Amino acid sequence: MLALDDVHTHYGKSHILHGVSLQVGRGEVVGLLGRNGVGKSTTLKTIMGLVRPSRGRIVFEGREVVGLAAHRLAHLGIAWVPEDRRIFRLLTVMENLRTGLDRPGVAEERKREMLEKVYAHFPVLAERRSQAGGTLSGGEQQMLAIARAMMLEPKIILLDEPTEGLMPRMVAQIREIIELLHGDGVAILLVEQNVPLTLEASDRIYIMEKGVVRHQASAAALRSDHTVIHQYLGV
Ligand SMILES: Nc1ncnc2c1ncn2[C@@H]1O[C@H](COP(=O)(O)OP(=O)(O)O)[C@@H](O)[C@H]1O
Ligand SMILES: [Mg+2]
User: Fold this and answer.
1) How far is the centre of ligand 1, averaged over its atoms, from the C-alpha of 220 (Å)?
2) Model-level pTM greater than 0.90?
3) What pairing do the DSSP bridges indicate for beta strands 14-24 and 63-64?
4) Residue 51, exposed/middle/buried by CB under 10 A (0-12, 13-18, 19+)?
5) Number of neighbours of residue 76 by Cβ within 10 angstroms
6) How far apart are CA 140 and CA 196, in angstroms?
7) Mutate to test the pocket of ligand 1, among 9, 10, 14 (most ligand atoms within 8 A of CB)
């Protein structure tokens, strides 16, 4: 469904991605692991068009998406939850969710259904629906960011370190949300530092080093033989 082929990205003169190639199949959860600074976030930003690749192709459902505006990507079914979450701190939880819903072609009835579905899955967001986003805890804000992405009814969600800085209980909840999305057939490209969670939640794994993918394997293979993880990630 999503394929990156030999993607090179520069920030000014710094050459950051040196030919990243990876694929995500329909409904597949794919983990992208790697030490700090290897280019994981840059890979997601390049997919989202925040930075334009200097070389290579990015194809989604058979069409080249390099150069498309963010709202076009959203319309095609690609959602992104960045590391810094970017929820609207002064808007209420409900208003934050509505920013994902207020787009052409979504009937009021459908909007209500989608809000109800999200509130059923995230009781804490239902409880806090009238509270300003900025008053939520870090974990709750992460949930809100993911829930808002779900409002776009995406085919794939790019998640950038969703569990970073969260308490174990919240990490477990994020894990459940990933399962839920997986069960709903939504594909996920999951960037994480939490190796055990990524190995458990993913179907397949790519490991990056210095701007390239160095290794790929099924998550099951990496779970049963830890030497590869140890070699590349030192854990
Ligand atoms: N806006 C930017 N301008 C210049 N260099 C950047 C920028 N963002 C990230 N970098 C550099 O690009 C490299 C990869 O960063 P990043 O993709 O954020 O890595 P990761 O997500 O794997 O930790 C790092 O060396 C980082 O310092
Ligand atoms: Mg990053």
Assistant:
1) 30
2) yes
3) unpaired
4) middle
5) 15
6) 22
7) 14
User: What's the rounded mean pLDDT across residues 147-171?
Assistant: 95
| Cβ contact 2:24 at 8 Å | yes
Report residues whose beta carbon is within 6 angstroms of any ligand 1 atom. Answer: 11, 14, 16, 34, 36-42
State how far the Cα of 98 lies from the Cα of 94, in Å rounded to an integer: 6
pLDDT at 95: 96
Contact 219/194 with Cβ under 8 angstroms?
no
CA-CA distance, 34 to 18, in Å (whole number)?
15
Mean pLDDT across the chain, nearest whole number? 95
* Spacing of C-alpha 218 from chain mean position: 19
**Residues 71-117: tens digit of each pLDDT:** 899 999 999 999 988 899 999 999 999 998 888 888 999 999 999 99
Pick the CATH number of 2-83+154-233 from 3.50.30.50, 3.30.9.10, 3.40.50.300, 3.50.50.60: 3.40.50.300
Residue range 30-87, pLDDT digits in tens? 999 999 999 999 999 999 999 999 999 999 999 999 999 988 999 999 999 999 888 9
Provide the sign of the torsion angle of the four alpha carbons 63, 66, 70, 71, taken in this order: negative
Which tokens go with 217?
């394997």
Q: How far apart are CA 127 and CA 90, in angstroms?
A: 17
